[in-house]
Batch of 4 targets.
Target 1
Amino acid sequence: MELANTPVTQADSAGGDNATAEPSVSSSFEHLVAGSQGVITKRIDLALLEGQELLSRTLQRAALVSAGMVLAAAAWFAGAAALVLFVIPDANPVVRLAAFASLNGTCAVGLVTLALRRSRPQRRVRSNGNGSQSHNVNR
């Protein structure tokens, strides 16, 4: 017998059949699983990179917005203080502080009122089928 000198073909090393030279079902399934795992790993890596980029951009924007808010608050207080000093230059510090507080309080109440007014639902106009319109207010 000459089995020792039999050359090994590619089909044999892949677990295939010598007669058809096609890989077996099990080796095809192994290749499919390995390829699927590679695709899944690459997708997970891509999702992680996209998540890191999104988090980085979000943190940068949040830092810029917070710095802008601090600067806007500082500008508001400086402007309000300058207005109080311009309007009542000869008043004592208690009167100036009271005027400063009332100016800031009035503006705060105005902004809150404006915000609450915008958050109320709008009136809806619906046709009721006979050509007239009914007005519904959702509160």
Target 2
Amino acid sequence: MAKDKALAPAVKYFFKRLEERADEIRAEASEFSSQHQEVQFDDVEGFFRQIMTQNIFIHTVGINGKHESTILAKAIFSMNRVVRIYYSTSFDEENSGFIRIRPDPKEQLIIVERMHGFRPVSEQIYVNHDQSSIIRFMIRWLMRRIDWDKTKLNNLDLYKRVVAQEQEEARAKIEAQIAQQEADAVQRALSKLSKRGPKRLTTR
């Protein structure tokens, strides 16, 4: 077995610099995390990861620059606390674009921005610290782009679950109301009996 070749001084120098830079990055990350709280983003990520499993289609611009109906599974990408929704995947990079949603720990906000064209510069279109507000904004954005010719509401598994849950909640509410009415009726009957008091025995 041939012996390993001796390491060249340039290689040693290269890895020494890598080591130094890695230590600097770790120190910077530690300092940053100690000064900034993590922005809550789980609900936003969870929302998009759930709806992208459904057969929901949105109007987009396809690779040939023509209109295309794209299923959410191909339009949405969620990774490392960043969500992307592509509305254009044209071969012409000047016409490519997506919406990016990401938390900003420094500003303690969630930022929705548009990235469009070749070497795009981010264009903020909505900013909020509240996850629910971000989700509502993106729902409005999606509603304007849904392809209703291909999206069949009654065929969506999540929609069926939503309907079933609402029916169950309505049933539980009715049962609770009936139980409360019965309890109130019993309470009123007992109250009447207590007001009458015990019957007196009469003697001749």
Target 3
Amino acid sequence: MTLDVRNLDWLRKLKIEGVPDFGQRMYEVVADMKNGVQTIEQQGNFSCNGNPSPPPAPDGLRIVPHQTGVQFAIKHDGEFYQGIQYEIDATSAGVTHTYDVGSSRNGVLPVGNLSATYQVRARYPNGPSSPAFRLSGLVSGGGGSSALLPSEGAGTTRRGQPPGFGGPFRSANGAPPVRGQ
């Protein structure tokens, strides 16, 4: 979503005696500023209208027991911008703890042998969270294997891609994702 500039077409038609192209030049100045703001919005996941949209919800969550707790793998094949972060909620006996796991879609939560239900949400910094993907059933931590689950990537990288190979956004067609709102 880009900055809304009112009366831009009116500005283009302005005429001042002695400067016949005044309106056109002013229009170009304002249009260039508007395009610059749009670039900043895309690169920084901002909304200059004050309504940032959440990224699409994650597609899946895998939780398996690990020697120190549980290991997670977040599946997220949606189209989104860089700066995406993930939050995993663990709920046990009516108490929920939220773990901010950053941009990585793989890791270990140090919950010990806790039996809990889990869900994952995605968000951009300073924006609202996406709807949660809920994992059905309880998972008990502790024990299990120390072998790692296959990599789901991090940030805008894809499954199995090394870090640093993602761009400013991830999309199926190479064009920036369409923002909500």
Target 4
Amino acid sequence: MSNGKTIVKPQLLQLIEEFCENNREVVLVSLCTTDGFPIKYLSADKLSAEADKLAAISSTISALSDSSAQQMQQGKCDIIIIEAGQGNILLVKTSYLGKPCVLTVVANIKMNLAAARYKTKHLAQDFASIPE
């Protein structure tokens, strides 16, 4: 990953597309490396964010949350949830092809937070199980 490029396998694309198809309240799914390089980004037409900026933000929030949890002696940070006026932003540490990554999911207010959390964590596990 030294050049910032990671192979996007068909299984990854399929998982993201199925996730969005089955969860219409999801307006954005992004997978990036923990050092801020985008791997795959899919968003609804109404939400236009730049993949590079989102990857940088996601990796930074994840790193800060990890550092905060460790400083407060709470162990590793598994999931970050940002509750906003129009919905929720969930960031989950995962891996893809053996590399540490951050999965970011944005769900509108219609999606129950517990459901969003459960489904996002499940998607992160699915990413981690894609064979190298």
